[in-house]
Amino acid sequence: MPPNANTPTRVRSRITGRRYASVADAADYLACEHKLIRKMIAGGLVTGHRLPGSRLIRVDLDELDAAIVASTRQAGGAA
Q1: Measuring CA to CA, which residue among 14, 12, 10, 13 is closest to residue 24?
Q2: Beta strands of the chain (E only): which ranges?
Q3: Which residue of 5, 22, 63, 65 is 20 to 30 Å from 47, comparing CA positions?
Q4: Taken in order 51, 17, 63, 21, is the CA torsion positive or negative?
Q5: How many whole angstroms separate alpha carbon 57 and alpha carbon 75?
Q6: pLDDT in tens, 32-79
Q7: Dihedral, 60, 41, 74, 8 alpha carbons, nearest 10
């Protein structure tokens, strides 16, 4: 699927096919503050992947989607 104005800039892993995005792009993806993404990483809901030799942290958008669905179901909302 080609990126559009509503799709964050992301990196797709050639090996795993996963969608990785920066913390800021992940926050834009969920329409929330970057602090929430960092809290989700710190709380173990999603994994923050640090690029080798860099301070950049990437978040797997598929894992982020799954965490949101799981927390919605746990809270009793419709998924």
Answers
A1: 10
A2: 11-12, 19-22, 48-50, 57-60
A3: 5
A4: positive
A5: 28
A6: 999 999 999 999 999 999 988 888 899 999 999 999 998 888 777 654
A7: -40
